[in-house]
What we know:
The complex is a heterotrimer of chains A (511), B (280) and C (303). Chain A is α/β, with parallel strands linked by helices and 511 residues long. Chain A has 15 helices and 18 strands. A seven-stranded mixed β-sheet of chain A has the order 13-14-15-12-11-16-17, sandwiched between helices. Chain A has a six-stranded mixed β-sheet with strand order 8-7-6-9-10-18, with helices on both faces. The radius of gyration of chain A is 24 Å and the shape is globular. Chain B has ten helices and ten strands. The relative contact order of chain B is 0.18. In chain B, helix 1 (46-65) crosses helix 8 and helix 3 packs across helix 4 (99-119). By secondary structure, chain B is α/β, with parallel strands linked by helices. By secondary structure, chain C is of the alpha/beta class. An eight-stranded parallel β-sheet of chain C has the order 7-6-5-4-3-2-1-8. In chain C, helix 3 runs antiparallel to helix 12 (278-291) and helix 6 (121-133) runs parallel beside helix 8 (153-167). In chain C, 58% of the residues are buried. Chains in contact: A-B, A-C, B-C. Strand 17 of chain A pairs parallel with strand 10 (269-277) of chain B, so a sheet runs across the interface.
Amino acid sequence: xxxxxxxxxxxxxxxxxxxxxxxxxxxxxxxxxxxxxxxxxxxxxxxxxxxxxxxxxxxxxxxxxxxxxxxxxxxxxxxxxxxxxxxxxxxxxxxxxxxxxxxxxxxxxxxxxxxxxxxxxxxxxxxxxxxxxxxxxxxxxxxxxxxxxxxxxxxxxxxxxxxxxxxxxxxxxxxxxxxxxxxxxxxxxxxxxxxxxxxxxxxxxxxxxxxxxxxxxxxxxxxxxxxxxxxxxxxxxxxxxxxxxxxxxxxxxxxxxxxxxxxxxxxxxxxxxxxxxxxxxxxxxxxxxxxxxxxxxxxxxxxxxxxxxxxxxxxxxxxxxxxxxxxxxxxxxxxxxxxxxxxxxxxxxxxxxxxxxxxxxxxxxxxxxxxxxxxxxxxxxxxxxxxxxxxxxxxxxxxxxxxxxxxxxxxxxxxxxxxxxxxxxxxxxxxxxxxxxxxxxxxxxxxxxxxxxxxxxxxxxxxxxxxxxxxxxxxxxxxxxxxxxxxxxxxxxxxxxxxxxxxxxxxxxxx
Amino acid sequence: xxxxxxxxxxxxxxxxxxxxxxxxxxxxxxxxxxxxxxxxxxxxxxxxxxxxxxxxxxxxxxxxxxxxxxxxxxxxxxxxxxxxxxxxxxxxxxxxxxxxxxxxxxxxxxxxxxxxxxxxxxxxxxxxxxxxxxxxxxxxxxxxxxxxxxxxxxxxxxxxxxxxxxxxxxxxxxxxxxxxxxxxxxxxxxxxxxxxxxxxxxxxxxxxxxxxxxxxxxxxxxxxxxxxxxxxxxxxxxxxxxxxxxxxxxxxxxxxxxxxxxxxxxxxxxxxxxxxxxxx
Amino acid sequence: xxxxxxxxxxxxxxxxxxxxxxxxxxxxxxxxxxxxxxxxxxxxxxxxxxxxxxxxxxxxxxxxxxxxxxxxxxxxxxxxxxxxxxxxxxxxxxxxxxxxxxxxxxxxxxxxxxxxxxxxxxxxxxxxxxxxxxxxxxxxxxxxxxxxxxxxxxxxxxxxxxxxxxxxxxxxxxxxxxxxxxxxxxxxxxxxxxxxxxxxxxxxxxxxxxxxxxxxxxxxxxxxxxxxxxxxxxxxxxxxxxxxxxxxxxxxxxxxxxxxxxxxxxxxxxxxxxxxxxxxxxxxxxxxxxxxxxxxxxxxxxx
Lengths: 511, 280, 303
């Protein structure tokens, strides 16, 4: 319960105060021993209203794939087939790009006020359907419904609302520049925040007068297709938003397409580099939001209870399948044993299991492939000599699961300290001085996000200046807001999403 | 033989605040409009480039930590130095073109530098901003220098093009390795001498004369270079340079001309967003 | 620990972050518990209640009513446990002790010139001796917030210590009046100070100051209790009081308790609610769980 380690005796009580204060027996409460179990409070899975088959979304309507190929989207919590989805082939990508290109002049030339109003309406529709959409992402992707409901969906709606307001104010965004859209944006998004990533991509692109062909991730295509329907319902002209599900090959066809003026990709650094090579010399606009190996730095003067929460949230939010996850904990040596104790104690209260259960903290891993990758990296950590800690927890028999995991005795050169695991696995290292913390934090090719916990204000600013990452969370972690730019330095990509800076990725001459 | 025999300057590279010859010992000729070889300029090698990148990396922390006010004064000082030697620049540039064009180019160069000098302590205010997030958080986005920038300067206008590339890079706190126009190595060397006398810390700007076709691929592939200004790269070279830049995901940009452009500065910055809760 | 060390001890107890504290408790607010657990929680909450009246208009008649209600909260259901204690002003301790005589409910008295605490120390000590002599099993004292805010940690410590000695074997609950301390950092400091000085329970508030008990301030205090236990091996209890009037709130508090200190603290010996109207709401919720019908206040006795 409270302390799973020996308690030092003696202590603080003044000698003269050692009076007997043991309570006489409190009246027979008659309530029996503590029985405290959280209810399996399961969100209704049918709210997702999942259809048997989903086609492509091109030119404002659902289309059968010319590829004549279909694939199955799996529910990662059960390994069951969820829906059959059309796979876009080259001819389908051609059609979608053509539809976007055809719609581009009219959309770019449309009244900015009208563009704003359509996007506001879409934001409202998303709010109204947010329970449905939350369940959809939870079932298709495995994330806890609590996160889909309380984090993803509110942010999705807020993102559309925020950029809707920019649509008719673009001339105020960049001093001295005349805002002009790029044309057709080809956007490829990952599976960790299916609808949120779509919102991050689609909202600023449409607000700035571009048209979009969106390729959702192979394992989580459903909410993007639903978004296209809602966009249609909101009155967006046909062809302004097209959705082409499929595997990586579909994404490659889209980003390499001659009719695409702008490519925006969120995903792994490896694929990001491939796209960069592919587009070399093509004269296309490109923004990349890639991997990370976020350092979470805890100083001895930090508010330790909140830092514990922050570190837990930093690595276990969305099963750690977050590009900005705080996957490396750098804790000051003077408090390391105590802090690790706090973390281990807190780990025992995390609930792993059914993502639809509102009490679940850690849901299912997105796919068998991802689970295998996590398992393999964790195994490498053990073999390289790091010490693994996992709380006792029962995992469901079917589905893809990985328990929350800590590694101590990690050295900077271990794979688990260097490679992005994209799972609920925290590597714990120590440091002695602020200089050393910065040096260790920056000693990686990535530069997406980092966290600092200390109560000393000037140290926060000193650290923030020196950390090579696009986002620095001080005394907090994993906070997102449509008004706040997000994106990486170094091999974590280039360009920003969110805020005024997010507009630059979709306008000429200001990026 | 009448009159005095002049002393000719040796045209060398500018690396880490020093003026070395190319380690390769190579030179290449600068031929004037009328076909005469005027000077032999140092022809930089990939090893010179490596030294230049090392110098730029070493100079980066000090340069980016200087106040914008201080950087602005140094950029302004460079403009003073060029103004002081304006006639020399005009004469050198006129060797390969018309004098009136040369005169305009020198004047434009000075004015452009002053424009960027003034931005040094202002661009953060214009490119960065507070973000009104929905919650009890202080949230601010500020531009930071991207790091070491490789600049492939356009062939012409040689001086204005070089300064048009280096101005925004320097002003926003980056350090640079520039490959100057092979058509006008004299102007590049004279510009380097202005830098050396304008309190620019050694290594902040490094200037290599030689052939971009030979040097640019090494710059693009260098893992310790963070960004590239490809304005001077030929269109057919751009593809392979961008491809090489993918190894460490360099930020790349191309600009049509050396116009006054705030967003050319922004292109060599990274937006860093810092969150902090507001509590008691 | 010597007296000179006290100020540096108080300053070294660590800090909190207000925003993250709020996020943590709002995250816990979405937990839902099983039906049988809920029944257990409601009954436990009753057994944890210090049924309280602290009004200028309190009379002997009023507190007797309260005492009977405390013993048998629901006349129609004998399986409902008694509350933990009845908490009253010092002058009413005698009548309450008489009314509760032989019953499994303890007598609690506020002391130290509650609620302001603005009186000379010797008067406070005398008052404490008096209430214990009159039959109080438990003493709810209030700290001198002025002294605490002025940095007189030795003074506050000394006061608690003297009251502690005066209270003898009675259970000592130390009210921090958290709404007046200004920050969670101060709440943590005052919690540690009170525990070090000998508090058996630390308590949020008097009910006279807003904000009184909130889940967030309770969390900060529970974390201090946990850390003090880890340091000294001494388990201190927690009593949120003021503004907790619904069963839903009470369950929310128990969630925070369970997540922070675990089952060892889920007992009236280590956790109390200071409340008055809470009791009937707990009873109504139990009846609702039993019958499946929403309840009316008309069917529950008011003390």
